[in-house]
Every structure is written in C-alpha cells, then in structure tokens.
Specification:
Shape: rod-shaped
Number of domains: 2
Largest sheet: 5 strands, mixed
C-alpha cells in the first residue's frame, strides 16, 4: 500500500514553526544578526524572507521528504546572504534532525555521512581559500549545524527502532506463550477426559447392566448377586474417583507419595471383574498371552509406565464395550510382548442393537492414548466378531516416560 502524505502538519511541527518565526521576528526587531548586522539593515524587511521560508519548511519536517530539506538549505543560504538570524539556524538544525528521524531508511543511512563529508569539504575549501586558523571554528560551526543534528537523529532513530523491535518480539513471545498455554491446557483436558472415562465407564456400565437385571428378575438370589456386583463396582468406582481427585488437588503436597497407577499385573483381576459382570448375560472372558497369570508382570522386564498404563486402559475400555454391546459368547483378551507390546480383545458382535447407549468417546480415547505413544490402533468388525487391536512400541514409550 503506497504511503500517503498527510495534508495537515503535525501539531509539534506547527509549534516549532510558530516559535521559530516569533523568535526570528524578535531578533530582527532588535537588529541581532549572526553574520553581519549591516547586511540585515541593508535588506530591511527582505531579511525576514529566509526565516519565513524556513518556518514554512518546518511545517512539513515529518512527512514531505527531501523537498523540505532542499527548501531549508536554500533558506539557510539566503539567510546567510541577508545577515543571518539565529532563529533561522536553529529551525534548520531541527529540520535536518527530523529528516533523519522521520525520513525513509535510505535517507537515514545516507544523510549523516553526507553532512559530515560536506562539513569536511567546506572546512578544507575555506582553509584553502583564506589560510586562516579561525576557519576551523567556522567549519566546526558548520558541522554543528548539519552533521550533529543528522547524527543525533540517527542515534534517536536507532534506539526507537530497537525499542520497537523489542516490543514486537515481546508481543510475539507473549502470543507464543499463550498458544503453548492453550495447547497444554487442551492436552491436559483431553488426558483428564480419557482418564475420567476409563475410570468411570467400566464401573457404571456394570452397575447399569446389573441394575437392569435386578429389576427384571424375580429370583431373590439372582437379585442379591446383582446388587452385590452393583455395590462392588460403585465402591471401586468411588475409590478410583477419589484417587483421581487426589491427584488433581495434589493432596500429597511435596509429591513424595505419588498415587498408584494401574499396571498389567492387574489384568487378571480386571478380567475377573468383567467375568463376574458378564456372567448373567452369557459372556465368558479369557485372558491369554504374556500377562495371563497373576504376577507375570512382576517377573517380566519392566515396561515404560506410559505404555503399561495405555495397554491397561485399552483392555479396560474394550471389556467395558464388550459388556455393553457383545452378544453371548467368548471374549478373548490377549496381551503379548515381543519387540512391541500388542493388545487384542476379540468379542462376539451384538445382536438387536446395543444394550446400552454409548457416545463413542471410549474408542476416541483408546486411539488417542495409543497414537500419543507412536503406536497403531484399530477397532471394528472382522470375521470372528468385533476386534480391538493396538500395537505400542516400547522404545517410544520409554522416550515418553
């Protein structure tokens, strides 16, 4: 987008022009000229013309580019020829300063060395022409009028640009930090959602199933068994919820007593719990593979904690889905450890639609757990029914741990 020149001058530019004009008028009225009083008296009112031109140039010191500087130089030359007023000289130095401070980057780079070169050239020329040492003072004055304001403007502009760059970097850092914070909060919320689902869904599903059975059966012993399973699952669910709440509240304080997390050594107990919950509906549960026997996880080499927890949660959620949806038959759970850890849960397909409604969050949670560890997950029907399968790389899990 092209840069447009404002039609109205800046307020500070107007003030500089007004005060410069008033100061020049006062000096002219008092016949206080810097070069030669006789020239000022000889030109009379015309001695004010360079001052007026210089003040008009000051109105565009911020925005009208090199033309303002050219006009100011011509006014300065005219001021020298008509006796010289100090106010005109002061306004000129401000215009040179503004040309570097507010001008284009190219002008800001070129103008200071050019003014210094002109000061040196002017001093050498005057020294060669007059051969008087006093010429050095004139050259110093010339440099003070041209080069000094230019380098001052360059210094101020450099500091201003550095401050702007630092502010932009600070804003970018703040935005990146906010993005990281939101991503961290989102990841933590997703992790908490998976954990809450895995903790609660299994027990609530068993409670719902046995509550339905207790309502539909007239057998007092069967109702008592169903109520016993309901109580057991409600107590276990409450215990796990309290454990999770304790983690969130950090009740340990110093963190020296971390809460225990499920391990693959608990797979036999998990399958036994599902077996007791699915027995009234004709479901049979079998655990096979590396961790089929109690204590097998203790004798095997240690697994990375994230891999072990993910495998346990996949089995837990697959058993919960089997209790909800599977038809009577055999549910086979197999967990094998080789180069990677493989989890497979095979269950018969349900008939007549799902027995309990589900939101699909369990499958999403299982997939997220496995993929976060660099593993592979699949769930869907096959020739033998419904199969949940996951492969968890042990090396990736070790890195995550």
């Amino acid at each position: 987008m092209p840069r447009t020149t404002p039609l109205r001058p800046h307020r500070s530019d107007v003030m500089i022009a007004v005060f410069g004009l008033l100061g020049g008028l006062l000096l002219w009225a008092l016949d206080l000229f810097t070069i030669h009083q006789g020239l000022g008296e000889a030109y009379g009112d015309w001695a004010l013309l360079p001052l007026l031109v210089m003040c008009l140039a000051a109105l565009g010191r911020r925005s009208h580019g090199p033309w303002v500087l050219v006009l100011a130089v011509l006014a300065l030359v005219g001021d020298g020829l008509t006796g010289g007023l100090l106010a005109t000289l002061i306004v000129f130095t401000d215009i040179v300063y503004a040309a570097v401070l507010y001008g284009s980057p190219r002008r800001a780079r070129l103008l200071p060395p050019w003014t210094m070169a002109m000061s040196v050239a002017f001093t050498l020329a005057m020294l060669a022409a007059l051969r008087e040492p006093e010429v050095l003072l004139v050259g110093a004055l010339f440099a003070g009028v041209t080069a000094l304001p230019a380098y001052t403007g360059l210094l101020v502009r450099t500091h201003r640009d550095a401050a702007t760059a630092m502010r932009l970097r600070a804003e970018q850092t703040a935005r990146l930090a906010e993005m990281d914070r939101r991503q961290a909060v989102g990841a933590e919320r997703a992790r908490m959602a998976r954990e809450l689902h895995d903790l609660v869904a299994n027990h609530l599903s068993a409670i719902a199933l046995h509550a339905t059975a207790a309502q539909s059966l007239d057998d007092a012993s069967a109702t008592a068994r169903a109520l016993g399973v309901i109580r057991e699952n409600s107590v276990q669910g409450l215990t796990e919820m309290r454990r999770l709440i304790g983690i969130l509240r950090d009740e340990a304080g110093d963190g020296d007593a971390p809460a225990a997390r499920p391990t693959l050594d608990g797979l036999p107990a998990l399958v036994d719990q599902a077996r007791s919950g699915g027995a009234p509906d004709g479901l049979r549960f079998t655990l096979c593979g590396t961790y089929a026997e109690p204590g097998a996880a203790e004798t095997a080499d240690g697994l990375p904690a994230p891999v072990e927890l993910a495998a346990y949660r996949v089995v837990q959620e697959a058993l919960t889905n089997a209790l909800k949806h599977a038809a009577p038959g055999e549910v086979t759970v197999r967990v094998d450890r080789d180069v990677d850890l493989t989890v497979s849960v095979q269950s018969p397909l349900g008939r007549g639609g799902p027995r309990l409604p589900g939101s699909g969050a369990g499958l999403v949670g299982m997939r997220e757990r496995v993929e976060l560890l660099g593993g592979t997950f699949s769930a869907g029907p096959d020739a033998d029914g419904w199969r949940v399968w996951a492969r968890l790389p042990l090396s990736e899990g070790a890195d995550a741990a």
